[in-house]
Amino acid sequence: MSKTQTVPDIQREPNVAGGGKSPRPPLGVSGLSLLAILISLFSLIPLGYVIYMTATTEWSTVVELVIRPRVGELLLNTIMLVVVTVPLCLVLGVGGAWLVERTNLRGYRWWALALAAPLAIPAFVNSYAWASTIPSLAGLGAGVLIATLSYFPLVYIPVAATLGRLDPAIEQSAASLGLGPWAVFFRVVLPQLRIAMAGGSLLVALHLLSEYGAFAMIRFDTFTTAIMVQFQSTFNGAAGNMLASVLVLLCMLLLLGEAKVRGNARYARVGFGAQGLAIRFKLGRYELPAQLALLALFVLSVGVPLYSVVRWLVAGGAGVWEPERLLPALAQTMGYGLAGALLTCVVAFPMAFLAVRHPSWFSKLLELSNYVTSSMPGIVVGLAFVTVSIRLVPGIYQSAYVLLAAYVLLFLPRALVNLRSGLAQAPRELEEAARSLGRSPSVAFFRVTLRLTAPAAAGGAALVFLAIVNELTATLLLAPNGTRTLATAFWAKSSEIDYSGAAPYALLMILISAPMTYLLFQQSKKAAGQ
Amino acid sequence: MKIRKNMLAGIALAATAAMGLTACSSGAPAPASTPAASGAGEITVYNAQHESLAQEWVDAFTKETGIKVTVRNGSDTEMSNQIIQEGKASPADVFLTENSPAMAQVENAGLFADVDEATIDQVPAEFRPSTNKWTGIAARSTVFVYDPAKITADQLPKSMLDLAEPEWKGKWAASPTGADFQAIVAALLELKGEEVTTEWLAGMKENFTAYKGNSTAMKAVNAGEVDAALIYHYYYYGDQAATGENSKNVQPYYFKNQDPGAFVSVSGGGVLASSKNAEAAQKFLTFITGKAGQEILKNGTSFEYAVGSGVASNDKLVPLKDLQAPTVDPAKLNSAKVTELMTNAGLL
């Protein structure tokens, strides 16, 4: 989702357009800043809750709860999971993207879509499929397997979009200067994928930290599953919150790492003429291995879950289709998914705008606060909301509003990542040009910047929709009485090993996620200017 | 400045649209009516019992009394924690659980009203807490399910305490994160004290394999992954009555002799002190412990033991009186201590 300058020597400029010019008058920004601050403060509710619980626990208890062998086990499990899974996702994501975008692979258009498809399959459905196919699946290896197969598209999609749009002129220059294809890839192409790779990796890592269902099903303990266990046991709230604090620290480390890798380069391309088409690398005798590798990946990530769901549907027969339960669950999931996606994008906009147009330590801090919240497991955010909402706004407790607010906080970064890159690509010069042609600032903003950002916003909304469809624990705690989403119904059935009964819910989740995944894929291409 | 106003208006508009959208499409009740919805003739039940059983109770109750019941489903301690967080503002009128510890937890938080005499009269004393702040509504027995191909009858443990011995290393499974298992540990703690429990849990950590959920643990025994599992009886009978696919290679074994492993866990029902419709809530409790409610339990598919109004349990089960369960006052089951001991043992 980056845009590389055609003129190399300003590539390193900060992304304030026009470099040395002073930023927009602070007055125009202050309202936006205020909005962003309010949203950030709101998003700090769960973190505040965890800090409050930690602060009100005696120090000796904190030490006792945090420094014990079990926390060591969980830390090792969680870190190993991230350390192994993220590079695997990078290899699969970048490798896949390169094959479909930059080689003469047969059927590359089909493969381009097929590699995004696993995103339509919720991680816990994937886990359910694998666990019911190989019941003994458990532990770190299983965790890495499920997580990699479920999350590699989060790297693949942005990388493919960026690759498809990189200006081949730079590569051609490099080649003309005597670099071989591999050297061109590693020294020219890969560095330009930095933002997409860093952003994708961050999303994967955040998923890994907060995923519950997928790992619980295959008996792999991470901080999040352990926190859930603490809350399910007799509310050792202190222990649960201590674990959450450790999780927050891990998240901060990830964010710092990502910010460092992402750097400050400017990515809006304003230049004369159209960029050329990339020349596709001729695979030759590598074509067969490449096809087989992609096929294997597709079978493992999409084939296995689909096969399992269909197998359980067949085993369950007509009896598992209970329309009076399925349809309301479908309607509720769609309702929350769409409303939550829209709302999250709207809320994320001021933040993204500040981050791109007025970057400062302050806007970074605001952004950071939102990422921290999203790395917390749904159960922690859910309990914080129960505690806060029943005391401060009892009138809307257990209403759709509170649940939507929780969704916004949990999934804000997904919209933010997309919006930020969308805005970064909408050059401010164009808006200024519109103004110089006589448009009022607001018209110029809506006609130019907002329109250019729309595809990225659609991508962000699709990503949030997918996340809401998969959300379990916050939904259970905060939903209005009688609410049953596809995910919670699926979880209830599969926990009772009623695999057949769970299958229709799994199928519906996949079916409503598929168009969103397609939208996400399309929009990421469009956002990349294809 | 103009940009800002327009944007704010746009944001407000989109947000309102989003709210409206969910309100209609989700079929969720209008927000304003949520907590206060339990007006006359309506109650809200926080249900951690089997969903199908609760639904049958609710349907029969509404048919008989005309009182509308809203059910919120969850698991024992998730719901008790939620009720405690909600405090006096809780929308719940009635709380139903599968085990006693979550009831004791809410009782200790001072959130239950006294149970009506009419209900107390229907439930024998051994299935009620001595405090009468809630009542038993059903019961479930601890059982050791094993694979007869791997463990012969004479190799079976005499007591649940034996499972901590080195010869049981790697041979048995349990679901330590569930309320079911924690109720068993609570009984052990009440019967044998902290020292024995701590030692047993340490031995357990060495010996056992953790699964999530009793049914999953039984399935593992059935599939030959592990030799035996410590679970509740009805998972076995429920599966036998259905397809038997997760229990056909499994045998149930009862410890009896008042052993901690012969513990019978009482499922609880209570009325919240904060209930705005206490009369209807009490009526619901009287109904489910009454003859009609207990008959539903007996004839249903949950295979739990009936405890009230002299109704016999499902005849597929080993009769309750033959189980030689130890005597435990369910109000005394200390779940907070159990969690602490299990956390210290590295099980949670």
UniProtKB/TrEMBL annotation, chain A:
Keywords: Cell inner membrane, Cell membrane, Membrane, Transmembrane, Transmembrane helix, Transport. It is a multi-pass membrane protein. InterPro entries: MetI-like (IPR000515), MetI-like_sf (IPR035906). The chain crosses the membrane at residues 32-53, 74-98, 110-130, 137-157, 169-190, 197-218, 238-256, 292-314, 334-356, 368-390, 396-417, 456-479, 499-521. It is found in: Cell inner membrane; Cell membrane. It holds the Pfam family BPD_transp_1. Its main location: membrane. Residues 75-260, 330-520 form the ABC transmembrane type-1 domain. Residues 1-22 are annotated as: Disordered. Belongs to the binding-protein-dependent transport system permease family. This is Iron(III) transport system permease protein. It comes from Paeniglutamicibacter kerguelensis.
Automatic annotation (TrEMBL), chain B:
It holds the Pfam family SBP_bac_6. Transmembrane segments: none annotated. Keywords: Ion transport, Iron, Iron transport, Signal, Transport. InterPro entries: Ferric-bd (IPR026045). Residues 1-23 form the signal peptide. Gene3D superfamilies: Periplasmic binding protein-like II (3.40.190.10). Belongs to the bacterial solute-binding protein 1 family. This is Iron(III) transport system substrate-binding protein.
